[in-house]
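Handout, section 4.2: multi-component inputs.
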Amino acid sequence: MTIETDDYRDVWVFVEQHDGTAAPVSWELLAKGRELADETDESLVALVMGDDVSDLAEEAVARGADRALLADDAVFEPYRADPYGEQFRALVEARKPSIVLIGGTHTGRDFAGRVAVPAHAGLTADCTELAVDDEGLLLASRPTFGGDAMATIKCPAHRPQMATVRAGVFDTSEPTESDVERAAAVEEVEVVVAEEDALSTVLERVVSDVVDITDADVVVAGGAGCEGEVGPIVELAEVLGGEVAASRAAVDEGWIEPARQVGQTGKTVRPHLYIAAGISGAVQHLEGMNDSDVVVAVNTDPNAAIFEHADYGIVGDLHEVLPKLTELVREQQEVAA
Amino acid sequence: MNDGWNIVVCVKQVPDADDVTIDPDTGTLNRSGAPAVLNRPDHNAVESALALRESVGGTVTAITMGPPPAKAVLQTAVGVGADGGVLLTDRAFGGSDTWPTSLALARAAAELDADVVICGEESTDSSTGQVPPGIAAHNGWSQLTYVESLDPQPEDGVLVGKRDVEGGYERVAAELPVVVAMEFGANRPRPAGLHRKIFAETEFEPVEWSASDLGIEDRVGLANSPTKVGGMDTATPVERERIRVESVDELYEYIAEVR
Ligand SMILES: Cc1cc2nc3c(=O)[nH]c(=O)nc-3n(C[C@H](O)[C@H](O)[C@H](O)COP(=O)(O)OP(=O)(O)OC[C@H]3O[C@@H](n4cnc5c(N)ncnc54)[C@H](O)[C@@H]3O)c2cc1C
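Output:
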C-alpha cells in the first residue's frame, strides 16, 4: 500500500480531558506542536473530545492552536477506547493530518492504536524527544533498553506520523490574553459514533484529584526499602517543600499512590533535587529521574545501582537517615526565621 | 455458557534485560550474550488466563510469534498450566513492527475463536504497549488495558476489568471477544507443576502457523511496518558526582548547598 504523503499536512494535538479537566500533558504537547508546526510551516490543530467541553477547545486556541476541532457528545464521557478511537480515526481519514501527538498516559496509550491500526499509520510509543528533519519528517525519539539508548523512529511512507509522548518532558504552553476571535477558531465536527455501537460500559470510576509531581522542584521518592512506612519520606518532602514520589515497587504495595510513580511506566520528573530512598535503581526507574539536576541516594546496600546514578549517596537505613535530615533542615529553618 | 471460554494468552520471548549491552563504538545493541526469557509482564498475563479458566471453564492457549526457539516461552506457559500452544513462525514475519505483529496475533486469535485474549502490559525489550490495543483494533474487538483484576460475567457475555487510570481506577464491562492487557505485577504468578513442566519440555509440541496459513503473507514483515528505526544513539549518560558521604550532617551540607 503506497500513499500520497503530500496529501497530508498539519500537526494535530489530542487534548486529553477527564470530567472537563485537561490533562497537563495536553498543554505540553500543544507547546511542542506549535514549534513543529512553525518549522514545517503548517497549522497546529487541537482535537478536543468530550461532553460539554467547548471551553477547552477555546483554551487550546488561547494556548497557541491555530484551530480546534471539537467533537462534543455524551458518548465521549467518560473515556472509552472504541468511541474515541472510531471518532478520531474518522477525522484523521477525512482531514489527513501529517503529524498526530497524543499524551503517553494510560488513556492515550489505550486508544492511539485504535487510530493507527485502521489508518495503517506509524505509531511511536512514549517518546521523549520530537523534531522534524529537512523534509518535514517527524523524528520521534524514545529511550530503549532501559534508557541506555535512544532510538529515533521515522515513518517515511505512511501517514499520519503518530506518537504518544510522555508527560513532563516538555514545557507547558500558557494561555495568552483573551482573544475575541478565539471562538471563531473552534469548529464543531460531526460525531460519527453512537452509544448503541459501543463495545464497553464504564460501571464505576473512582478518581481523586491527581497530584502533578512533574512540576516539583524537590522530589523525595520512596521505594521497597520503606517497608510500608512512608512517614520519613512524607516529612522530609514537607520540610523541603517538595512532593512525595515512589518507585513502582512502593506503588504496587499500595504505600504510595500510582500518580506519584516515577519511571518508564510512571512520570518523568525534572526537579532541582531528587532524593531516592530505599530505591535500588532499576533501569525503568532511572528513566523517569534522569533529568533531575541533583540526585541523592539513601540505601542500605552499598552496591545498589542507584549510587552509580547519584551525585551524593549515603549507605544507611532510610528510617534513620531521613528523620535526621528532616531535623537538620527544620533547625536551619528555625535559625533563618 | 457451559463449555467455558476460549482464552488465548500472548507471550513473547525477550532478551533478559539485564544482559543487553550497547557497543560503545557502533552504538548498536549487543543481545547475543543475553539469555532469552519470557517477558516478565507476560507471567501476569498467563496467571490471569489460568485464573479465568478456573472461574469460567474453557481452555487456555498460549501463542507467540518468533523464530523456532521462541517455542521455549510456550513451554513455560504450558508448564504452568496452559492447555496448548501455537507458534507463529515464518521468515515473512521478520522485521515486523507493532502493526504487522498485532495483525498476526489478531488473525491467530480469530482462528482460535478466542473469547478473551490476554497479554502482558508491554514487553521489556520494545516497551510500546501497543500490541494489545493493536490486536483489538485489527479485529474490531473490545479492549481492557492496564487491568489490575478481572471479574468474568459469563451469563451476560461480558468481562469486567478493574483498570488503573490516572488518579484512581475504573471498572469497565467489555463485550466478548475482548483483548486484555494485564498490568505488570497485577497478580502473583503460580509456579510450574513438576509433572506439567516435564510434559511441556518433553512431549508438548506447539502447532505452527506461517504467514500464509493466516492469509497475511503480503501484509507482514519489514515492508508492511510503518515505523522505521532511523537511528540509535547511546543516550548521553547523565554525569553524576557519585560522592559517597559518611554522615547525615555531611549529606545535609550538600543538600543545603544545592537548594
Ligand atoms: C514493564 C515494566 C515497567 C516498569 N516500570 C517501572 C516504573 O515506571 N518505575 C519504577 O520504579 N519501576 C518500574 N518497573 C519495575 C522495576 O524493574 C523495579 O522492579 C522497581 O523499580 C524496583 O523498585 P524499588 O527500587 O523500590 O525496589 P527494590 O528493587 O526491591 O529495591 C529496594 C531497595 O531498597 C533498599 N533498602 C531496603 N531496606 C532499606 C532501608 N531500610 N533503608 C534504605 N534502603 C533500603 C534495598 O537495598 C534495595 O536497593 C517496571 C518493570 C517492568 C517490567
